[in-house]
Structure formats: structure tokens, C-alpha cells
Design brief:
single chain; 196 residues; alpha/beta; Rossmann fold; 2 domains; elongated; Resolvase-like_N_sf; DNA integration; Recombinase family protein; DNA-binding
Length: 196
Amino acid sequence: MEQPGRKKIGFARVSTSDQNLEPQIARLRALGCDEIYTVKESGAKAHSETLEQCFSVLQEGDMLIVTALDRLSRSQKQLGFIAERLKDAGIELHSDREKIDTSSAMGQMFYTIAVAFAQFERDLIRERTQAGLALARDQGRIGGRPPALDEDGIDSVRQMLSGTTLSVKAIAAHHGIKPSTVYKYFPGGRAALNQP
């Protein structure tokens, strides 16, 4: 049964700028959409920004309508996270091609599966991260970028600063680093090293 006051918001996407959005828009209008958000770009940024605009007008009890699930999401993983977000916000989802309507008991099964998939993906990422950190610890490494200079490199820069008249820029270039990196290791540069 149609809920009074419930908004129907449509979302349409084509993957490249030369594809035609009109068939999706026409179908979404036929399905009763009050507003339709469209993406006509191949990039993830445009898709994400438009999806956020769409979410900003959706409220609990509203329905998001797409002609097909692959119009809503760029990947199966992303679909899981979108479904989870919709479910948590109390927003229903209708996909015309797959005949998914989460306002029905059968449609709720989609949310259950999609949300479980999103949680599974998060668990995998957490597992990989923990395994990577453990391996790094076992090998004597810690997280973050490796240092720009090892001990030999630091000694070499020190010797060149104190024993030559080469500019900091030339010394940095010799070691394949930026002048700012020299000053990071030796604040004050040559002048500080040559102080009595």
C-alpha cells in the first residue's frame, strides 16, 4: 500500500557522456518519481557527488527508484554499502529490472543479503590490514612511508654540508631528495652544523 507523504526519488546513470539518459528518465517518471537525479559521466567522483545530492533529499519512509541496480552502483561492493546506508536510514529501494521492492517482505531479503555482503567486505579489508601490519612488524617495519634517507644517506648529507660548498639544492639533487628534506634532517642547514 502506498504510504501517504512518501517521496519517490529517481536515480539514473549512464557510464559515458555520449549515452542517452532519456529512456531511464522516461521510465522513472512512469514509475511516479517526484524528482530524478542523473549522472552522465564515467568518473566515480561525479557518481558519488550526485548520489550524495540524492541522499540529501531522501528521508525515512521515502523510496529510491532505479531502472536497474547497475544504474545505482558502479560495483557489487559499492551496492552493498549503498543498500546498507538506505536500510539504516529507513529508505526503501525499488529496482525496476530486477523487480526488487524493499517495502515488501521478499524485497527485504535483498537488503539482508546486500548488507551482509557489505559487512563481509569490511571484515576482509580489516583482515588484510591486520595481516599486513603483522607482517610489517615481523620484518621490523612500521606503518607509514619509508624514511627518505637511511643512516648512510644522513651521514653523506652531513659530510657534504660540513665539508663542501655545494648548495643545499645540489646536495639534495645528489641524494634524490628535495631541499626541504635536507632541512628536515638538519634544521638550520650548513650554518647549524658549522657552529662552534
